[in-house]
Amino acid sequence: MTGGSSSRRRRAEQRSSAAGPEQRSSPREAASNMGAGPALAALLLAGSVLSATLLAPGRRTEPDIDEKRNVELKMDQALLLIHNELLGASLTVYWKSEYCYQCTFQPLANVSHRGKPAKPSVAAVPVSTQHGSILQVNSTWGETAACRLEYKFGEFGNYSLLVQHASTGTSEIACDLVVNENPVNSNLPVSIAFLVGLALIIAISFLRLLLSLDDFSNWISKTITSRETDRLINSELGSPSRTDPLSGDCQPEARRTSASPYRLRCVDTFRGIALILMVFVNYGGGKYWYFKHSSWNGLTVADLVFPWFVFIMGSSIFLSMTSILQRGCSKFRLLGKIAWRSFLLICIGIIIVNPNYCLGPLSWDKLRIPGVLQRLGVTYFVVAVLELLFSKPVPDSCSLERSCFSLRDVTSSWPQWLILLTLESIWLALTLFLPVPGCPTGYLGPGGIGDLGKYPHCTGGAAGYIDRLLLGDSHLYQHPSSTVLYHTEVAYDPEGILGTINSIVMAFLGVQAGKILLYYKDQTKAILMRFAAWCCILGLISLALTKVSADEGFIPINKNLWSLSYVSTLSCFAFFMLLVLYPAVDVKGLWTGAPFFYPGMNSILVYVGHEVFEDYFPFRWKLEDDQSHKEHLIQNIVATALWVLISYVLYKKKMFWKI
């Protein structure tokens, strides 16, 4: 929105005194799979572009420069003009974000006293618009704050802070905030994109509903005969399949083809949802703050995806391993496959994903050791080995013998539960009781300017200390999300050593979901009851640990720490997702899982590919205005849609990357 001399002025006076899968065929699958594939790919790409190119303001059409004061605004900033109308007193204005817990105020501007009675001194400064701001004004007249304001600025808005005497002849100071120029609605592009995407999903679902009708499908079948291919591959990062990479050639071909494994499409769909969200937020998410990781405590959309991926990996481990062992593969050979796959995941993460080869060759001195694939590899190895060591055969008639009140899915895993509880006890003991030099014992904060700046080098407490002690600062992530608000200066890795314990717990909860699906197959009510029960149990644990507060709980929800409350909360959400997806996708056949099903089938390829080719066209190009949410959103949606399209084409060509 451009400025004008006749802009309306809105006065917001705020005065204050100082201080202060397996896929199972759904009904009419043959009909429902006809005709929608090519249309899906075309609609997906066209819709993704349309959603972001609609006439939605991303920023001003003219440069955001106050010519008099030479201030150019960037993304998520507004212009604040501070008017000092006090005679003989200079001002110092401090700022902090409402989202920054127990942070110290940071200097924003110094405004000298006015030289002439009729002409106040003015200072122009940019202010953040991501969260609410707290402004504190100090004058040279006193040591205490003259006034304090709380306000949520809008992007590219123009505001004036008037500091003046409350009335003539008094020493009381009043601070008034005036809106000179209204901000733009920077959330409009993402709202339009969401609505268009939702409309596409509804349209495709309606098309498939029509195709499920006999008369309509018979008419269509006369002209269109395309059918979806059967699944041919799987990975533990994918779902179990007839030819599992863990099994190798454990069974003769005749026996393998005669088996009819239990398949769940909702597992691939859930994995695809997590993966596509991961690609979108990793590419930038339109540069919106809620598509970035939380600075410390709390949750954003970006914080959901990795735990969900770990959870569904656990489900796939159990479903796949059970199928392999039932086919007679030896545990020793299976253990070798597990170890090799874990090794490959760790190597791919360290050598391929972590280094940025666009900046130069790999440097061993500064190579980041932890990472997403590295944590997946370690988590996969521990959980898969536990299931292999304590696996028990599941009789074919098991589902017929279980009642809704049976706990066989839990009691059959008591050795694994005992080991998991031991690991969690180790995490709690190290986190809460390990002495950290220069830091309070049990510290869970971000350091930096948090906690009133008392512990600036204590980022992550015991978790950060263990990583720096064992791996060294140079081998950790150098730009953690805590630097944004808390101005931390030490390296901290969100995929560090201590947090891996809780990712193992998360994966094992996914194993529990897989056991529910297998032990009670064909018993929809029993499955849904158990999913709902786990939602309630884990939700209550989260409420108790957090005390329904972002920062005041015993153990806050924290992605950087992978805290216990973070695992319980995200596992609760994961069980809820399965509670919705299982009946919709596998029981009622209301949704095929498209388009998320396709990337869910090729998860390793999509993840590694989107990391390696992130800076290459057509996934990224030079933007005309790199301070526009709209342009970033267009680029990120198109890049994400391209990976969905790639996974769809590879699926149709029966090309899958398995390790």
Keywords:
5-stranded mixed beta sheet, Immunoglobulin-like, globular, 2 domains, 11 strands, 4-stranded antiparallel beta sheet
Structure, explained:
It is globular, with a radius of gyration of 28 Å. It starts with 9 loop residues before the first strand and ends in a 7-residue tail after the last helix. The longest helix is centred in the middle third of the chain and has 25 residues, at 302-326. It is of the alpha+beta class and 659 residues long. The protein has 2 domains: 10-18 and 64-181, Immunoglobulin-like; 190-206 and 233-357 and 375-394 and 409-652, no CATH class. The strands form 3 sheets. Strands 1-11-10-4-7 form a 5-stranded mixed β-sheet, with no helix packed on it. The protein has a 4-stranded antiparallel β-sheet with strand order 6-5-8-9, with no helix packed on it. The protein has a two-stranded antiparallel sheet with strand order 2-3. 46% of the residues are buried. It contains 20 helices and 11 strands. The chain has helices at 29-32, 36-53, 188-211, 214-221, 253-258, 265-282, 302-326, 331-353, 372-389, 398-401, 408-411, 414-433, 462-470, 482-486, 499-519, 524-546, 564-587, 597-601, 603-612, 629-652; strands at 10-13, 65-66, 71-72, 77-84, 91-97, 106-111, 121-128, 133-139, 145-151, 158-165, 173-181.
